[in-house]
Specification:
A hairpin with a 6-residue loop joins strand 9 and strand 10. It is built from 15 helices and 15 strands. The protein has 2 domains: about 180 residues, Rossmann fold, CATH 3.40.50.720; about 200 residues. Strands 7, 8, 9, 10, 11, 12, 13 and 15 form an 8-stranded mixed sheet that branches. The two termini are about 20 Å apart. It has about 400 residues and is α/β, with parallel strands linked by helices. Helix 1 crosses helix 14 and helix 7 packs across helix 15. The structure holds NADP nicotinamide-adenine-dinucleotide phosphate (NAP). NADP nicotinamide-adenine-dinucleotide phosphate binds next to helix 1, helix 4 and helix 8.
């Protein structure tokens, strides 16, 4: 972590004029310590000043964030600003299009970096290009600090902590949610669906590089199989091809308490088989549509950037992630529950991840790291305090024997 005395800002936020970024700025204004040296940066001064005024009104007792106008394609200006900061938080997306300059600058400067991407191709590309730079400078590059993938990463971590750590362990994650998404999320999803082939290639390159770097004989696997009806809950569980399983097994590969042989199976849960079939068909249609350029252009017009569910809709939204862990000798069930997953809770998660990296006594790690590896224990405590439930429903170990 860079020293406060060699920087002008603790946190520089990019994307505060957008939907998720605006909610994140509001959360920081209301929850960050008043002495946090905070700036908001972006390409439109007037829009940034409006955000600074709004968050100033939300928290009149703290100074407004400083406003910095900057173009992300101006490498020198970006490097200079990142060099003045201890941490960069960015919600500028789609990340595959706009994300690289900030990752590159942070990795080179030794500045910590946090985002809310859910785009696997971007995360793998950034690993291949900047992980080694960040390891050398000491920067922690923490992607996926929103609903992708904090509840799953920390939920699986808490579940693994209920086991002895010396047996093979399988965790099945089952996700339910009722929510709407923003224009920015929609645009990023279209980009992701349209880049599946490139994404698979980057994932394969990454696996080769990681295998060459690892000297561990512990094994981790992602499993995906056909839908089935869970006898314990009566719900249908179908494979959910998000970035979450990749994040969970990266944490498992780095943290020995997940055991010698760890498997993660990521699923959506639904009451009816027809919901699972409908969703599968919807994904199939999107896959075809995003592969045909004119259809893709039409699709992109459905929901434009900057828009998202209003406060009343977000107040009715919720998520529930159930992690069921099984080893030869033990079974444990953990539930993670919260409100609007994509925006209200994502704002909390990304802001608290950033504050944890800045303020908490976390493990000494660097390079591209997951939330569980960078700040898992401290972040779990912060999110519980912020109202997100992480509950061990079954098979809790006594606190004294729980891994940290
Ligand atoms: N993982 C999760 O759980 C999760 C949840 C929510 C969102 N997301 C992701 O977060 C991203 C943002 O979502 P959103 O709904 O907030 O999108 P949004 O409302 O469209 O906001 C995008 C932000 O990026 C900025 N931006 C875009 N292009 C830029 C450029 N060339 N230079 C500088 N700034 C630029 C915009 O600034 P201007 O005002 O200047 O246009 C705006 O502040 C998306 O990729 C979305 O998928 C992830």
């Amino acid at each position: 972590m860079r020293d406060a005395s060699e920087t002008d800002f603790d946190l520089v936020q990019f994307g505060a004029t957008g939907f998720a970024g605006g909610l994140t700025a509001d959360y920081l204004a209301e929850h960050a310590p008043p002495e946090l040296r905070w700036a908001i940066a972006g390409r439109g001064r007037a829009r940034l000043e409006a955000v600074a005024r709004r968050v100033g009104e939300l928290a009149p007792d703290r100074p407004e964030p400083q406003v910095i106008e900057i173009q992300l394609d101006d490498d020198d200006a970006v490097a200079a600003l990142v060099g003045r900061a201890r941490l960069v938080l960015t919600t500028v997306g789609p990340y595959a299009i706009h994300g690289e300059p900030l990752v590159a600058a942070c990795a080179r400067a030794g500045t910590d970096y946090v985002d809310i991407t859910g785009e696997p191709q971007f995360v793998d590309d950034m690993y291949l290009r900047y992980h080694e730079d960040a390891e050398r400078t000491g920067a922690r590059l923490v992607h996926c600090a929103g609903f992708d993938s904090v509840p799953h990463d920390l939920g699986a971590m808490l579940c693994a902590q209920q086991f002895s750590g010396d047996e093979p362990l399988k965790i099945t994650g089952a996700v339910r949610a009722n929510a709407e998404f923003s224009g920015g999320t929609f645009q990023s999803a279209i980009g992701g669906f349209g880049a599946l082939r490139a994404s698979a290639k980057l994932a394969s390159q990454r696996r080769t590089v990681e295998a060459g770097r690892s000297s561990s004989n512990r094994r981790v696997h992602v499993r995906a199989g056909a839908p089935y009806k869970d006898p314990a809950t009566g719900k249908w569980l179908a494979p959910l091809p998000t970035i979450d399983p990749q994040i969970v097994v990266r944490s498992a590969a780095a943290l020995p308490f997940y055991g010698p042989d760890f498997t993660y199976d990521h699923r959506m849960a639904a009451k009816r088989l027809s919901t699972v079939v409908g969703l599968g068909a919807g994904v199939g249609v999107l896959l075809v549509a995003t592969a045909i350029p004119p259809l893709r252009t039409q699709l992109a017009k459905i929901k434009s950037s900057g828009t998202g569910p209003d406060a009343e809709r977000r107040a009715r939204s919720w998520f529930n992630v159930r992690m069921t862990g099984e080893s030869a000798s033990h079974r444990a069930v953990v539930e993670v529950r919260g409100g609007d997953p994509g925006y209200d809770e994502t704002a909390k998660m990304v802001a608290e991840t950033s504050l944890s990296l800045l303020l908490d006594d976390n493990p000494d790690v660097s390079g591209q790291v997951t939330t569980a590896v960078a700040c898992g224990g401290a972040l779990l405590g912060r999110l519980r305090a912020a109202g997100i439930a992480f509950e061990v429903l079954e098979g809790a170990r006594t606190p004294a024997s729980t891994h940290t």
